[in-house]
Design a protein that fits this description.
single chain; Arc Repressor Mutant, subunit A; three-stranded antiparallel sheet; 3 strands; elongated
Amino acid sequence: MKIVISNTSDAPLYQQIKEQIVDAILKGELEEGDILPSIRTFANDLKVSILTIRRVYDDLEQEGFINRQVGIGTFVSTSNVELLRDSKRRIVEQKMQDMIQTAKSLGITQQELNDMMSILFEEE
C-alpha cells in the first residue's frame, strides 16, 4: 500500500491517509484479513506523528473498515458489505457534486451534462 501525503493539500494529514486507505479497501488493493502496519511503524514510514496514525486507525475502526486486536495487529475488515457499498456511493456523489458545481459555473445545462456523462460512461 502506497500512501502519498501532500503538504499543499487543504485536507489534514490524517484525512489524506484515511481516505487513501479506504480507497485501497474499496478498490480491492487491501482485502479482508490483510494486516496493516503497527501505529509506530506506519508513523515512521510516513514520517508523521503516532497520534496522527492512531486517529486514522480509530476512525477506520469506528467506520468498520478495520479491526484491531490487542497484541496481534490491525486487520482490514470488509465484512460490512453495505457499509462498503455506501462508501463507494458517497465517493461518487462527492465527485458528482463537484462536477455539477463546475458545470453550473460554466453555464452547462443538466441535459448537456447528462449527455456528456452518458458518452463518457459508455466509452469506459
